[in-house]
Amino acid sequence: MALEVKGLTAGYGPVTVLRGVDFEARAGQVTCLMGRNGAGKTTLLKAIMGLVELAEGSVRLGGVDLQGLPAHRIPCHGLAWVPQGRRLFGPLTVAENLEVGGLTRGNRAEVREHVLTLFPRLRERLAQPAATLSGGEQQMLAIGRALCLEPKVLLLDEPTEGLQPSMIALIRDAVLRLRAEGVAVVLVEQRVEAVLKMADRVAFMAHGRVEEMVEARRLEPGARQFLDYVGV
After folding, report:
1. pTM of this prediction?
2. CATH number of the structural domain spanning residue 105
3. What's the pLDDT score for residue 232?
4. Residue 166 scores a pLDDT above 70
5. pLDDT at res. 191
6. In 3D, which of 34, 59, 137, 144 has the Cα closest to residue 99?
7. Would you say residue 53 lies in a domain?
8. Can you tell me the distance from the alpha carbon of 14 to that of 105, in angstroms, rounded to the nearest whole number?
9. Minimal CA–CA distance to 25: which of 48, 40, 46, 4?
10. CB within 8 A of 88, min separation 6: which ones?
């Protein structure tokens, strides 16, 4: 099942951020969005989730048109989003955060077990308030909570930002396992090394458009695209 974005134009009030974006994320693949600050990466994820009103274009998942649906209904169609900053319920325990994430799907025990298998560290901290977790553990919980929706497409916005290498490796392994399970993962990431270890395809964004889509296997750490679009 593919997520298809066609001719998407959107922004905030009079400010247009996205200008005719065409983009596709395929099942069982990791598609990375890269670009300088202000290129429109986060706005694209928000527009897909119905949090930014579309001026033009369409968002479809498996042939179902998501345009115009209330934002709270879009996850029911198989989309989940982990924003920057994680936005956990800090006073709630790990178990309670996962329960909130599973409300839409009825909190099935096997789904929670899958999350805890993916992130064993969370099992050890089920009774611990989310606010007391380390940054890496909070990121695991944010992803785990999103996975309780049983998404077909998972949107991750800078999941490795501010994390130590060992935690980045754990997040990377989880993403690759989700890919193997057939989930379409859309990843906003600025770390070139992380991108090359996870991505199947890289979409380079500039000025509110996807300017270039490249198979990740064709890229090297010093590839021209990284210099042109990311400035590394």
Report:
1. 0.93
2. 3.40.50.300
3. 66
4. yes
5. 87
6. 144
7. yes
8. 37
9. 4
10. 97, 130, 131, 138, 141, 142, 145
Give the per-residue pLDDT at 231.
Answer: 79
Cα–Cα distance for residue pair 86/84, rounded to 1 Å: 5
User: For residue range 115-136, what is the model confidence (pLDDT) as tens digits?
Assistant: 999 999 999 999 999 999 999 9
Question: Is residue 158 a contact partner of residue 130, using CB atoms and an 8 Å limit?
Answer: no
Euclidean distance between CA atoms 161 and 139, whole angstroms: 10
Question: Contact 219/196 with Cβ under 8 angstroms?
Answer: yes
Domain span holding position 171: 3-190
| Domain count of the fold of the chain | 1
Contact assessment for residue 202 and residue 226, using Cβ atoms and an 8 Å cutoff: no
Residue ranges in 10-127 assigned as alpha helix (H): 41-48, 94-101, 109-118, 120-123
In a domain, 98, yes or no: yes
Residues 6+ apart with CB under 8 A from 20: 7, 8, 9, 56, 57, 209
Say whether pLDDT at 34 is over 90. Answer: yes
Confirm whether 218 is domain-assigned.
Answer: no
* Torsional sign, CA 171, 173, 178, 184: positive
Nearest to residue 33, comparing CAs of 146, 155, 147? 155
Judged against a pLDDT cut of 90, whether residue 31 lies above it is answered with yes
Q: Residue 50: inside a domain, yes or no? A: yes
Query: Does the pLDDT value for residue 105 go beyond 80?
Result: no
Residue 107 pLDDT > 70: no
